[in-house]
Each structure stands twice: as C-alpha cells, then as structure tokens.
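Changelog note: in this version the structure field was regenerated for every chain. One regenerated record is shown below for reference.
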Amino acid sequence: MKHSCLFTLVSVLSSIHYSAQYRTQHYAPQCRTTGNQDCVFPFIFKGETHYKCTYDNGKAWCATRTDGYGKTKSLGECDQYSACDYEAKPRYQKPAYYEPRYSSSCRTASGPARGQRCVFPFKYQGRTYNECAPWVWGGQGYGKNWCSTKTDRYGNHVNGYGNY
C-alpha cells in the first residue's frame, strides 16, 4: 500500500511540474501583430534572414507565416504593446524617385528646345548620361551632341515633344 501511495504522489507531482512548465511556455509574452497574429522568427525576406521585427516604410513588421524554407508567405505590422524585439531602425533613405538636376552652364544650342538648360543625369534607350550624348541619327545634328531638357520621374528622357 505504501508503494502505491508513493507512486500516486510522484505521479501527481510530475503532472503539476509538467503543467506549470506548460503554462509558463504557453503564457510567455509573445511578439504579435496589430492584427493579433503571432510573429514567426526567424524569417527570410528578399534573401535576408530576420530574427526580430524589421522596418519597411517606417513601420516595423514580421512574418506571420513562412514556407518550409523560412521564406515569408504573409506578414503583419508588429504591435508595439506586445513583447517584440526590433532591428535597428534604418536611417533616412532618399526617396526611390528621381530628382533631376538642371545644369547651370550647359544649354541646348539648337533644336526645338534651343537655349533651355540640360537635365542630368538622364536615361535614353537604357543608358544613363551624366553629360551630353552623341547625336547618332544623321542629318543636320550629325557629329554634334545633345541632352535632354525634360525627364519623367524615373529620369527617362521624355521623347517625342522636342525636349532636346
């Protein structure tokens, strides 16, 4: 009889220990998203592995679902009130759009935009120019150089409107 009581006592103590251990893990603070989803770490995004919430467009986010290789399948914004760790916030980065610089000394000498200031850099047919480009079309401009006087927001020469 003494042996069965001892077995029961050990059994009860083991289950209490297991239960306490489980509760500690289950109720441990979690990093969650503002949508109340658990963050998954580590995760891979654009070939880079992240172990903490990372930043994009000034907001911290994490993966909420990954594939078998750890690549991000879905994501969410990290909740600042949950137990999240964060990567260092990136310094200000210039916007991805193009900001043209108008030359103060280089102006067109002929053509439809005669006398207008050149824009550098400009892109034409996949090539970027930081100075005047050679005129390759023959005719009156053959052997001379040309530049763009108008570009789009990506720095591409606006063609077809006499902007050279």
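Spot check on this record: Confidence is low (pLDDT under 50) at residues 4-28. The longest strand covers residues 59-66.
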